[in-house]
Design a protein that fits this description.
The protein has 270 residues and is α/β, with parallel strands linked by helices. 38% of the residues lie in helices and 20% in strands.
Length: 270
């Protein structure tokens, strides 16, 4: 049977573990494999003395992968292949901090993005001036374009090729034609978000965690702005995208029930 892989990502301290716990304890039909990713140059570190899960644990296995960004495209598939070899019907739930390099590191079956309720919209969105400057920068620099869109690190070998470094800048007419294309439209949409929020563009479910962050009242406004922004890149494949504001840890939050239903529907499509 095929491997089913879900990526749950988002900024640090946004409540990703709460959403993962919901999936493991109340949604997954069977014992899922849990995988925590952390970058070697990041601030997240593997706890010392982790014991393997026991026979009464809610997960079949729990592993930690400390990765190098330039090697994640080979390290992650290798680890998932090893899990699949042990368990042919495995469902893997990956938890990671926001990292553009992870978005395209594997053809995930589903993606979830968890974010805290922002203090202001500027925590999530670039200003129009910042977005315009960032867009021009990535269009004028192929290496930056690859990093912005695909999460490709700057220091990978082929980025040093002269054909990448010395190419001519795009003309205004070329930029206009490019922005009318599907890829250009997606770039223009993503560029309006701060880099740590790029992962939500690819996600099937976006959870704005009202238990995290400082101003819960900003969550609704952020939700509406995200819905408008993501509608621009909606396709028949992504038209089931859900954006929810709720507290995953509060059973009394009525919107938590909607989150559970969305997670169940997500898993049923795998």
């Amino acid at each position: 049977m095929d491997l089913a892989v879900v990526l749950v990502s988002g900024p640090r301290r946004s409540g990703k573990s709460s959403v993962v716990s919901l999936m493991i304890e109340e949604v997954a039909d069977g014992r899922a494999h849990y995988l925590r990713l952390s970058a070697v140059n990041g601030s997240k570190r593997m706890p010392v003395g982790i014991n393997p899960p026991g026979c009464d644990c809610a997960v079949a296995s729990a592993q930690w992968l400390c990765y190098e960004q330039e090697r994640i495209f080979e390290m992650l598939p290798e680890m998932l292949a090893a899990i699949h070899k042990r368990d042919q019907s495995a469902r893997v739930i990956i938890e990671s901090d926001a990292d553009p390099a992870l978005i395209h590191a594997y053809p995930y079956d589903q993606q979830l993005f968890v974010m805290p309720a922002p203090r202001s919209l500027s925590d999530v969105f670039r200003s129009s001036t910042q977005a315009a400057r960032a867009l021009q920068d990535v269009l004028d620099d192929t290496a930056e374009f690859a990093a912005e869109v695909f999460g490709v690190p700057y220091d990978v070998g082929y980025m040093d090729d002269d054909s990448w470094q010395d190419r001519d800048l795009l003309s205004k007419s070329q930029i206009e034609v490019f922005l009318q294309s599907p890829l250009g439209n997606q770039l223009a949409t993503r560029i309006q978000l701060r880099p740590e929020y790029h992962g939500l563009v690819e996600s099937d479910i976006v959870v704005i965690n009202t238990a995290a962050g400082e101003k819960r009242e900003m969550a609704e406004g952020c939700c509406r702005r995200l819905e408008q922004l993501l509608h621009r890149v909606q396709t028949p494949i992504t038209n089931y995208r859900t954006i929810l504001c709720c507290n995953p840890d509060d059973p009394q939050d009525p919107r938590r029930h909607k989150l559970l239903n969305s997670l169940r529907a997500l898993c049923s499509r795998q």
